[in-house]
Design goal:
By secondary structure, the protein is α+β, with helices and mostly antiparallel strands. Helix content is 34%, strand content 13%. Strands 1-5-4-3 form a four-stranded mixed sheet. Strands 2-6 form a two-stranded antiparallel ribbon. The radius of gyration is 20 Å and the shape is globular.
Length: 200
């Protein structure tokens, strides 16, 4: 739903470093003077921290498992920052997860026919009961080094966009639909020159 402007408790991630870099620098107007940032996280380590077990998780959970489904179905059951008992009454199958729903987890979506998710190699984190930042969750733990913040010089953003374009990371490849096509056709490469000739 975030792709269509609806706020959710999900945070978009990508498994592609180039896609992450694209989203950090793609919109110079929105960026302004702000510093582009790319966050790098080992999703299995987030799940290790949030799930409260000693075994190491290799990557995101599948969207179909109960730990993901419970967090997604919490919507409407979180008055005053607490999970309402009514949630367990209406979803008795999640009763055994009471102690494990506080923190966010990473998961693979069921993309189905969503070509954007597939093309962008998308995955998500979904918030738990507690509204805690990921930096805070990782801080002072043995997993702290698995969440990294990479700041990019604003002066490099234009050059990075051009290098990504040369490598084929363009609006049309990121958004394989009419939106991506129109954004690319309105880009600098297709502008009309002062002589009236198309650059395409």
């Amino acid at each position: 739903m975030q792709h269509y402007g609806v706020p959710t408790r999900l945070l978009d991630w990508t498994e592609s470093a180039l896609m992450g870099l694209y989203f950090a620098v793609a919109n110079p107007e929105a960026l302004g003077e702000k510093t582009p940032i790319v966050w790098i996280m080992a999703p299995g380590k987030l799940n290790h921290l949030s799930w409260g077990e000693e075994r190491d998780f290799g990557g995101p959970f599948l969207a179909s498992i109960s730990s993901v489904q419970a967090r997604i179905r919490m919507i409407g059951y979180l008055p005053n920052g607490n999970l309402s008992p009514k949630f367990y009454e209406e979803h008795p199958g999640f009763g055994n997860l009471r102690e494990k729903l506080d923190f966010p987890i990473a998961f693979y979506p069921v993309s189905g026919r969503n070509t954007r998710l597939a093309t962008q190699k998308g995955c998500f984190t979904v918030q738990g009961v507690k509204t805690i930042a990921l930096e805070e969750l990782f801080r002072n733990t043995k997993c702290e080094r698995y969440l990294r913040k990479v700041s990019i010089s604003p002066l490099s953003a234009r050059e990075i966009r051009e290098e990504l374009r040369v490598m084929g990371i363009t609006p049309r490849s990121v958004f394989p639909d009419l939106h991506g096509l129109s954004e690319e056709l309105n880009g600098r490469e297709y502008l009309v020159t002062s002589a009236g000739r198309s650059l395409a």
